Amino acid sequence: MASGKTIRSASPLVKLVGFPATLLHGDTLVLDRWLWISSRVEGNRKNGVRVSQPRNGGLPAYGEAGLGKAVDIGCGAGAFTIGLARGGYSVLGLTWSPIDCETAESRATICRTPSARFEVQDVRQLDQRKDLIGGFDLAVCTEVVEHILNDKKLLIDVGRLLRPGGRLLLTTPFYGFRAITSEDYGPYSTVEDGGHVRRGYTVEQLEVLCRDAGLTLKSYTYCSGILSQKITTLMRWISRASPLLAWAVTLPLRPFPLVFDRWLTPLLNWPCFSICIEAEKP
């Protein structure tokens, strides 16, 4: 769920370009989320946390990376999992899709990130994974909670995976967004069929969910401004005819949100699409 629809035929691009290509397979919102996550992860380095060297002198294997252990809940095809592994974490990516799991494992191999591993896991059943309780310093959950009917249980289960002092980085649609395409306004699913089961969240709603899960909301912000949303609109429309064509047409437009969204979005009073929170387990 985290990385959206994946263009399977574009996997050779990962062989050619490496990790950055994993962020380009989905829509422009994927890169926005990664930039927000990476800005929080980079803070570990700036605060003096050192990445330890692996015993074998090469790349870190799972369990050896120096920033601790992370779990990517709803990792999709593994872009963020691989990114966190490149940044110094030992990362477990959980996805409901065996196809996505295979794709993620292949891309991790191409990107030379043995500290990233993947499992097929229904995140609604995290409470059954006793082996994962208290095992992680960081949990990442991007664009997942809006797909789950019992969002309170999901956050409680995620909280149990964290060690004391562990952090949760979560993104989800902001309740006040403007629709990228008309289906964003619903009707929303009444069953968990892969679609959104609710419009989105306010910061107050997320604060309650965190509190019920034993987490403290430390900060919140927003991502995916007007240009990012408009490019994604174009991509979705063209995808109805050809996903590959949509990807090719919008690829040259991707730098524009990075340059202009920061000032254009507030200037036009346009709501960002996603709300992003950082929470901590006491």
In short, what is this structure?
With 282 residues, the protein is of the alpha/beta class. Helices cover 38% and strands 18% of the residues. It has helices at residues 11-17, 19-22, 28-46, 79-86, 98-110, 151-161, 203-212, 226-239, 243-250, 255-267, and strands spanning 69-73, 90-95, 116-120, 136-142, 162-173, 216-223, 274-280.
Features:
seven-stranded mixed beta sheet, globular, 282 residues, alpha/beta, Rossmann fold, 10 helices, 18% strand, single chain, disordered N terminus
Number of strands: 7
The CATH first-level class comes to Alpha Beta
Shape: globular
The CATH topology comes to Rossmann fold
Number of helices: 10
Q: Which percent range fits the helix content?
A: 25-40%
Number of domains: 1
Q: Which band does the percent of strand residues land in?
A: 15-25%
Question: Which strand order does the major sheet show?
Answer: 3-2-1-4-5-7-6
Order of helices and strands: HHHEHEHEEHEHEHHHE
pLDDT < 50 stretches: 1-10, 45-59
Mean of the pLDDT scores? 89
Describe this structure in words.
- The chain is an alpha/beta fold.
- The chain has one domain: Rossmann fold, CATH 3.40.50.150.
- It contains 10 helices and 7 strands.
- A 7-stranded mixed β-sheet has the order 3-2-1-4-5-7-6, with helices on both faces.
- Helix 5 links the parallel strand 2 and strand 3.
- It is globular.
